[in-house]
């Protein structure tokens, strides 16, 4: 019987996030690891959603997961539900109606995120302001995570017109319970 081989794993310093190269190396190592110890490798995972599902945000509510994504195929936003993060069911548009101030064309609503609150759920999203022409952030509310969400706001929640708009809202709750919203100026 041959003596076990030793393998040296070369690592690189990561400043913020792993590079694509380091991710490929890690993936390759994980795929090869079973062969190195004589086991059969697992089957590669199948694609859970075989649709354009950009800018995803996943919220866990009770025993279900809700994935929200940028609109496609005529929907303002997309929504899918799963109980195991593997099998997903596409649901209807969680934001069927945009507020009056928003441009009413397809393809101008994206980057949704959801925050559970005591009174229900708050959906933050980016859409085009008809008056300024810039992308701005708004919010809509619903009693359930799958909506429908309603936005009755008279104007955008955040719209930095001097910085060409505001996009990609990301809410979070601090340890003291204070709700914060991060975003990027466009």
What keywords describe this structure?
single chain, 186 residues, mainly beta, Tachylectin-2, Chain A, 3-stranded antiparallel β-sheet, 1 helix, 9% helix
Note down, in words, how this protein is organized.
With 186 residues, this protein is mainly β. It folds into 2 domains: 17-46; 57-185, Glycosyl hydrolase domain, family 43 (Tachylectin-2, Chain A, 5 Propeller), CATH 2.115.10.20. The chain contains 1 helix and 9 strands, in the order αβββββββββ. The protein has one helix at residues 20-36, and strands spanning 57-61, 64-70, 77-82, 89-91, 109-117, 120-128, 135-142, 166-173, 179-185. The protein has a 4-stranded antiparallel β-sheet with strand order 1-2-3-4, with no helix packed on it. The protein has a 3-stranded antiparallel β-sheet with strand order 5-6-7, with no helix packed on it. A two-stranded antiparallel ribbon has the order 8-9. β2 and β3 (77-82) form a beta hairpin. The protein is globular, with a radius of gyration of 21 Å.
Measured by DSSP, the beta-strand proportion falls in: 25-35%
CATH architecture field of the largest domain: 5 Propeller
Number of helices: 1
CATH domain class name of the largest domain:
Mainly Beta
Helix share, percent? under 10%
* Category from helices, strands and their pairing: mainly beta
What's the arrangement of secondary structure elements?
Blueprint: H1 20-36, E1 57-61, E2 64-70, E3 77-82, E4 89-91, E5 109-117, E6 120-128, E7 135-142, E8 166-173, E9 179-185
Antiparallel strand pairs: 1-2, 2-3, 3-4, 5-6, 6-7, 8-9
In short:
By secondary structure, the protein is mostly beta strands. 9% of the residues lie in helices and 33% in strands. It contains one helix and nine strands.
């Amino acid at each position: 019987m041959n003596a076990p081989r030793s393998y040296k794993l070369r690592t690189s310093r990561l400043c913020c996030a792993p590079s694509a190269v380091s991710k490929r190396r890690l993936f390759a190592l994980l795929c090869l690891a079973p062969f190195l110890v004589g086991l059969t490798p697992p089957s590669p995972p199948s694609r859970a959603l075989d649709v354009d599902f950009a800018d995803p945000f996943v919220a866990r509510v009770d025993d279900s997961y809700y994935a929200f994504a940028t609109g496609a195929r005529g929907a303002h936003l997309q929504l899918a539900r799963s109980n195991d993060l593997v099998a997903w069911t596409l649901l209807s548009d969680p934001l069927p109606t945009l507020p009056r101030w928003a441009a009413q064309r397809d393809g101008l609503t994206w980057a949704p995120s959801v925050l559970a609150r005591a009174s229900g759920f708050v959906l933050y999203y980016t859409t085009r302001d008809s008056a300024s022409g810039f992308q701005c952030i708004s919010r809509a509310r619903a009693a359930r995570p799958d909506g429908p969400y309603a936005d009755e706001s008279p104007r955008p929640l955040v719209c930095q017109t001097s910085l060409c708009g505001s996009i990609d809202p990301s809410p979070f709750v601090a340890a003291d319970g204070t709700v914060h919203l991060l975003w990027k100026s466009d």
